[in-house]
Each structure stands twice: as structure tokens, then as C-alpha cells.
Write a structure and sequence with these properties.
two-stranded antiparallel ribbon; globular; alpha+beta
């Protein structure tokens, strides 16, 4: 969302998802940057398990301690943003826009060139519902 004066990350969440419940309780969250190999896991990640059941464990993934915040990272991700909630905005009865101050960013060496190496990382980006973007490439344009 922004880089100055503070780096910010924003996203939308359903008010009924555990994601929002956890962020409200902790006021912290991790954005796990994942590749297209996570695509088949989306059905499990979106299953409405009881609150105390971990979708991460159900997917056979590994939680690892974050550097600066309580919520864990997913080890199999290629990168992470550790964030502290700065603000949220109710955008409807069903959805909230969450804004987090980015406290730490890390990308695994194998997924990093001077920017994220999209050919190696194969980022998986959610658009809506079952629609995701894959097969990205980097194109550079001159800027003033």
C-alpha cells in the first residue's frame, strides 16, 4: 500500500474468517508469500474447521517462529511480511480492510534476485473465489 513514512500492507478479509478473529485478538499477522505449489492446498486452507484446528497442520505445513511478532510463519513459503495491525476499515457487513505496518520482510535466497525471482518463486496471487494468478514474468520500464 505504501512505503513512506512507514511500509504498509493491506488486504480484505471476511469478518467471519479465523484470519480476522486472530488479527483482532493479536493485532499482528504474517503475510506468507507462497508459490503455485500451494494451489492444491487452498481447498484445505478454506475449509471451515473448528477454531482450534490449524489449517497449517491440516495441510502438512510447518509453523516457524516469527522474528518480531507472535503469529508464526509458514516455513514452506518463499517469503514473509511480519505486520502489526495499524488500522482496519469495515467496508461492508461481511468484509473488513486490514492495514498492517510491515515490521520485517524476508525472502528466501533461492527466490530472490534483485527483486523476487518470479520464475523460481512462482507466486500464487489470489484474485477472487477460485481465481488465482500464476505464470508471472518481470518486465522493466524506465521511470524518472
Amino acid at each position: 500500500m505504501a512505503t513512506k513514512p512507514k511500509p504498509l500492507f493491506g488486504f480484505c478479509s471476511s469478518v467471519n474468517h479465523d484470519t480476522w478473529r486472530n488479527i483482532k485478538q493479536n493485532r499482528e499477522f504474517v503475510v506468507n508469500m507462497v508459490g503455485e505449489n500451494f494451489g492444491p492446498l487452498m481447498e484445505i486452507m478454506e475449509t471451515d474447521f473448528p477454531y482450534e484446528v490449524s489449517e497449517i497442520e491440516k495441510c502438512g505445513l510447518t509453523e516457524v517462529k516469527s522474528r518480531h511478532i507472535k503469529p508464526p510463519r509458514i516455513q514452506e513459503a518463499y517469503g514473509w511480511l511480519e505486520c502489526k495491525m495499524a488500522k482496519y476499515i469495515a467496508i461492508s457487513e461481511r468484509n473488513v480492510w486490514i492495514i498492517g505496518e510491515v515490521l520485517d520482510v524476508e525472502v528466501k535466497d533461492e527466490a530472490l534476485d534483485d527483486v523476487v525471482d518470479v520464475a523460481t518463486a512462482k507466486p500464487l496471487n489470489h484474485i477472487w473465489g477460485e481465481a488465482f494468478v500464476t505464470d508471472m514474468k518481470i518486465t522493466r520500464f524506465k521511470r524518472a
